[in-house]
Specification:
alpha/beta; TIM Barrel; 2 domains; eight-stranded parallel beta barrel; two-stranded antiparallel sheet; 14 helices; globular
Amino acid sequence: MNESLTKAAYEVAKVKYAALGVDTDRVLEVLSGISLSLHCWQTDDVLGFENPEGGLSGGIAATGNFPGRARTIEEVKADLSKAVSLLPGKHRVNLHAIYGDFDGKFVDRDQIEPAHFQSWVDWAKTNGLKLDFNCTLFSHSKSADGFTLSHKDKAIRDFWIEHVDRCRRISEYMGKELGSDCIHNIWAPDGSKDITVDRYIYRKNLRDSLDKIFEKEYTHMKDCIECKLFGIGSETYVVGSHEFYMGYGISRNRMVTLDMGHFHPTESVADKISSLLLFSDELMFHVSRGVRWDSDHVVILNDDLMNFAQEIVRMDALHRVHLGLDYFDASINRIGAYVIGVRSVQKAFLMALLEPLKKLREYEDSGRGFERLALLEECKNLPWNAVWDYFCLASNVPSGLDCIEDIAAYEKEVLSKR
């Protein structure tokens, strides 16, 4: 990065945006406050440490076998630390319950405790990070038939209720220890590959299980519930559909999670935001990229992502949303996958924050559709990338293609030796 050229380009961009009423210094101040929660499972292809010999199952799959997969907690932490070092801004880390420090012993899901995540809390404190958490309701013998919290067998439902309850307690501990509310997300893989007769019964069971889980309230964590259109093995019927969780979340005052890859390919998650925020105080988002019927490709700066960021910024709703990444690609360098995804989200929000909203609203309110569209198109041609490069410079992280050399060196020195 050429510091003098980057600063000069930023000054030119600053003047151009100022002519449209946009203060780029203020924009960067806001952008620096947007924290993304990095998903730990990108490091090891969602295997975790509960049963290293076990496989991934329950409606999801990781494809590829790129060298360097993390095999231990320390390797996961090292990879996360490397990724964070290449990102501007302050961020969080999102854990799944199967990533506990089990000391090489098998600890079943209904027996996990905060002590199993103490090393994560210590690591987060040392590195100035905050933690989020997820119960893990997949890749387990008691979810092998496709049902967990909605299961017709009460004993199995009770097992998973106990697991989620313990995860909420762990989240409370993390939030209290780190001084920032821990977001605990519930996603259940429950569903059927083929035609289901008892759709209602399963959804009633899920509702009742959640009601029992949420009987106890906590003060240092926040609950959210995540829908999905379909998964591998649940192509015909998913118990926790969008309609189910939207109804449950609004009626029970629980935060809804919208994953950008969990809807029909023609649906726009951006279009759902304004509706849900009329009835909910907050929303959780898993930023992903759906490709046809797969939901977990590395996030890139595409129209879906830009529309998503624009809607949140135009609504002045940054303080009402939580942002986490959720994708896993085992076919490319896993650190690179982090960096591409996080930076793409940050760039989308930067572009949204740089919009001359006052002028755009003036055009819209006066019925000047041509002028509004012309200005929106011209915004695409403004030097937002110069502002981005300056943001990286000010954050002391590499910009542009400089990341490639840094990640390649880490691959050679660390990943290739695993």
